[in-house]
Automatic annotation (TrEMBL):
Pfam families according to UniProt: TetR_C_33 (PF13305), TetR_N (PF00440)
Record-linked PROSITE patterns: HTH_TETR_2
UniProt DNA-binding region: 22-41
Protein name: TetR/AcrR family transcriptional regulator
Keywords carried by this UniProt record: DNA-binding, Transcription, Transcription regulation
Any one GO MF annotation of this record: DNA-binding transcription factor activity
Length: 197
């Protein structure tokens, strides 16, 4: 029952965003009484946390799908940069493909501030970025002292563009222009903050 309720809440989030997630609405969707749903979730915050965790797993899966195209044993500078590029593209493309889940993943409310790691990959999206930046450091592309700023800058750049593309004025761009903007933004992250030594 708990899984069915969580799936129903995830479907509501995907179609209508996090604001639509209520225990009552999810119970109705599954065909049970709100009282039955409250046996599994104490309140809306607990239900929202479960959906936020699933949304983060979906986001991590999108990034992981892009990363899977790069040989994990390749420690070259080119591969390290390709991983940074792939993670940015996977992040932004997930936001565009699943705006409701993306909004939910980073929505206010709930009780958790950082969703737990995906039990299948051992990573959540930010942890994946940390690992990628560690690869850039090992490849000699980023100084150890710059690691934190590269992580923060890369994340805030792709997250900001994601929000502008789904909720801001950039949502009105034609598709080819969106794809070009994504590519150029990821290029900017790779070239501006990662300088080959």
């Amino acid at each position: 029952m708990k899984n069915a309720l969580t799936r129903a809440a995830e479907e509501l989030a995907a179609s209508d965003g996090p604001e639509q997630i209520t225990v009552r609405a999810v119970a109705k969707s599954v065909g049970v009484t709100p009282t039955a749903a409250y046996r599994h979730f104490a309140d809306r915050d607990e239900l929202l946390d479960a959906v936020k965790q699933r949304a983060m797993v979906e986001l991590a899966t999108s990034i992981g799908g892009r990363l899977a195209t790069i040989d994990p044993d390749d420690s070259s500078q080119a591969a390290a940069l390709a991983r940074l590029r792939a993670s940015g593209e996977g992040y932004i493309n997930f936001a565009i493909a699943e705006p409701g889940l993306f909004r939910t993943a980073f929505s206010r409310g709930g009780q958790i501030t950082e969703p737990p790691s995906d039990p299948h990959t051992g990573y959540e999206p930010y942890q994946m970025l940390v690992s990628i930046v560690e690869g850039l450091v090992r490849a000699g592309l980023v100084a150890e002292s710059d690691r934190a700023i590269v992580e923060s800058t890369a994340w805030s750049t792709v997250h900001g563009l994601s929000l502008l593309l789904i909720d801001g004025p950039l949502r009105l761009l034609p598709e080819p222009a969106k794809h070009q903007l994504i590519s150029e933004t990821v290029d900017f992250v790779c070239s501006r903050y990662v300088s080959p030594s």
